[in-house]
């Protein structure tokens, strides 16, 4: 029952959560475009997942790719079981992750990609980038075998989406008038409403990844909430110090940074570690956002890389740093913190390179 609820919560994060969050951030003339993109991605990724996506991600296969033994969800019935939950429910839960990841990327090229190109890009990206990385980490692939800690998607979702975002922004080029014409969000009320849905939906994202209603899910839910709260306040205070006043856009962006950063660590760390991770996320992602926009002058329209990419990298490394400390679940026998951080770094680097190269080609 909890995983059924979590699945609905994660889908709720994309429609309507992310749709409204992004829709409010763009200019009024592009609002319906963003809503349409999120909605169509939800539909398209669903079909691709059923046809072959689940099989490539979670089929036996090898170290790098799954096989095609479960195309069209062949052989999965109501009595099939994965662990302690129905396999068909696990497939549906994972589908919602495959939906939100390409939906996150559209924030980077918002307001300047044709709709048909967006559909082609999203379909190819899911197939060539997301599905293999998902298999590496969660489907019995080489990173999972190596011992990478990624509870709910630091590498699979956030680094993947963030890196794809900045590569797409670089290839597409900046919007006309970027840096010289003001492009303020047209409706921050809509953005805050979407952000609130994301905060609540994230409990399904992280606590649902325990795949049970147990203590691990409870701790994941608590540290997720702490990470969001700490990230919100850290970003808000950074703005307050720099500009003399806080902003509603800042506090909701800090929330997303805190949530994205705690995601990979959420099943492995305790409340104190979550507090540190959340505050660090708010500060680091704020600095990264300013650096990319003002110093590098890259038009990542809605700051997908500095929030999700940088946050995913930070959180994945912190999972190795804080596992077993400050109320965490502990390291596996024979594993050291230094050794685990090195494994986390390998996971970050492999995801970064694979995603960057394939996204550029796409």
Fold and architecture overview:
- There is one protein chain.
- The protein is globular and about 55 Å long.
- The mean pLDDT is 95.
- It is 69% helix and 1% strand.
- It has a two-stranded antiparallel sheet.
- α1 packs antiparallel against α2 (31-58) and α2 packs across α3.
- The chain contains 12 helices and 2 strands.
- With 362 residues, it is mostly helical.
- A hairpin with a 2-residue loop joins β1 and β2.
Quick overview:
By secondary structure, the chain is mostly helical.
Spell out the key features of this protein.
mainly alpha; two-stranded antiparallel sheet; 69% helix
**Number of DSSP strand runs:** 2
Radius of gyration: 19 Å
Decide which structural class fits the backbone. Answer: mainly alpha
Shape from CA axes?
globular
* Portion in beta strands: under 5%
Count of runs of 4 or more consecutive helical residues: 12
Helix content: 55-70%
User: What composes the largest sheet?
Assistant: 2 strands, antiparallel
**Secondary-structure element pattern, one letter each:** HHEEHHHHHHHHHH
């Amino acid at each position: 029952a909890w995983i059924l609820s979590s699945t609905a919560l994660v889908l709720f994060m994309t429609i309507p959560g992310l749709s409204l969050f992004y829709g409010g951030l763009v200019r009024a003339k592009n609002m319906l475009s963003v809503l349409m993109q999120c909605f169509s991605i939800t539909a398209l990724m669903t079909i691709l997942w059923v046809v072959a996506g689940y099989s490539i991600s979670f089929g036996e296969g090898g170290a790098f790719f799954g096989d095609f033994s479960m195309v069209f969800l062949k052989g999965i019935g109501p009595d099939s079981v994965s662990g302690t939950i129905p396999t068909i429910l696990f497939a549906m839960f994972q589908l919602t992750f495959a939906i939100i990841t390409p939906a996150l990327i559209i924030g980077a090229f918002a307001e300047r990609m044709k709709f048909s190109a967006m559909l082609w890009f999203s379909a190819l990206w899911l197939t060539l980038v997301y599905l293999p990385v998902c298999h590496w980490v969660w489907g019995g692939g080489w990173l999972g075998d190596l011992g990478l800690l990624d509870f709910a998607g630091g590498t699979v979702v956030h680094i993947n989406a963030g890196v794809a975002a900045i590569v797409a922004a670089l290839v597409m080029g900046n919007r006309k008038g970027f840096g010289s014409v003001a492009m303020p969000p047209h409706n921050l009320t809509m953005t805050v409403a979407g952000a609130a849905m994301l905060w609540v939906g994230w409990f399904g994202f992280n606590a649902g990844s325990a795949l049970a209603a147990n203590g691990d899910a409870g701790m994941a839910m608590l540290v997720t909430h702490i990470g969001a709260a700490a990230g919100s306040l850290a970003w808000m205070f950074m703005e307050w110090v720099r500009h003399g006043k806080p902003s509603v856009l800042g506090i909701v962006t800090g929330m997303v940074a805190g949530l994205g950063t705690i995601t990979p660590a959420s099943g492995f760390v305790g409340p104190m570690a979550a507090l540190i991770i959340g505050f660090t996320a708010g500060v680091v992602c704020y600095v990264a956002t300013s650096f990319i926009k003002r110093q590098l002058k890259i038009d990542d329209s809605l700051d997908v890389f500095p929030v999700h990419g940088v946050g995913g990298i930070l959180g994945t490394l912190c999972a190795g740093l804080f596992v077993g400390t400050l109320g965490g679940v502990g390291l596996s026998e024979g594993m050291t913190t230094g050794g685990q951080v090195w494994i986390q770094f390998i996971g970050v680097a492999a995801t970064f390179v694979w995603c960057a190269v394939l996204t550029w080609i796409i």
